[in-house]
Structures are given as structure tokens and as C-alpha cells.
UniProtKB/TrEMBL annotation:
This is one of the proteins that binds to the 5S RNA in the ribosome where it forms part of the central protuberance. Residues 4-91 form the Large ribosomal subunit protein bL25 L25 domain. This is Large ribosomal subunit protein bL25. Belongs to the bacterial ribosomal protein bL25 family. HAMAP family: Ribosomal_bL25. GO terms for cellular component: cytosolic large ribosomal subunit. It comes from the Bacteria. InterPro entries: Rbsml_bL25/Gln-tRNA_synth_N, Ribosomal_bL25/Gln-tRNA_synth, Ribosomal_bL25_short, Ribosomal_L25_dom, Ribosomal_uL5_bac-type. It comes from Buchnera aphidicola str. USDA (Myzus persicae). Part of the 50S ribosomal subunit; part of the 5S rRNA/L5/L18/L25 subcomplex. Contacts the 5S rRNA. Binds to the 5S rRNA independently of L5 and L18. Keywords: Ribonucleoprotein, Ribosomal protein, RNA-binding, rRNA-binding. The gene is rply. One of its GO terms (molecular function) is 5S rRNA binding. It holds the Pfam family Ribosomal_L25p.
Length: 94
């Protein structure tokens, strides 16, 4: 099973997302029924390389946030229209 490392974030909005992308990171969210939403910051290169594998979309993944492991599935990914960049990712509690 694939493992993804993520960091918590508090800031939201377009300007903060742009600042993240300048530093080769991008925003994401973890949500699910009965759980509160968790705002995430993810490393672009590691996720970009993982998302090339079919198992990234079909299987459950482990998301590690501050030494806590969550079993998740990829719900949605937003990509830039012509650059090879990921803009946002949604994870769903599995």
C-alpha cells in the first residue's frame, strides 16, 4: 500500500495556494462522513510521481500527518490545463 506524507495547514485562499505552489507544494483536503475536514499541504514531486501508477487511484493509501496514519482513497485531483502541475487533491476517509 502506498504511503503519502502530508503537513497540516491553517491558511486558505488563492494567494496562499499560489505561495505553496511557488515552493513546489500544493493544497489538499481530507474529508469523510462523521469526520471533520483536515486541510493539507503536500509535496508536488512525490505526489506527481505516485499518481502515474494505476494503484494510486484504485487502492486505499496511507496518509501520514504528524505521526498519525489515515487510510484514504483519492476522490478528486485538479490539474493545470496545460502545465504538468497538480493544483489540488481531495482524499476521502476509507
Amino acid at each position: 500500500m502506498l504511503t503519502i506524507n502530508a503537513e497540516l495547514r491553517k491558511e486558505t485562499g488563492k494567494s496562499f495556494s499560489r505561495k505553496l505552489r511557488i515552493h513546489n507544494k500544493f493544497p489538499g483536503i481530507l474529508y469523510g462522513v462523521g469526520n471533520s475536514n483536515i486541510l493539507l499541504t503536500l509535496d508536488h514531486n512525490s505526489i506527481f510521481n505516485l499518481q502515474k501508477q494505476i494503484s494510486f487511484y484504485q487502492e486505499c493509501l496511507f496518509l501520514v500527518i504528524k505521526d498519525e496514519k489515515y487510510k484514504v482513497k483519492v476522490q478528486a485531483i485538479q490539474r493545470h490545463s496545460f502545465k504538468l502541475k497538480l493544483l489540488h487533491i481531495d482524499f476521502l476517509h476509507a
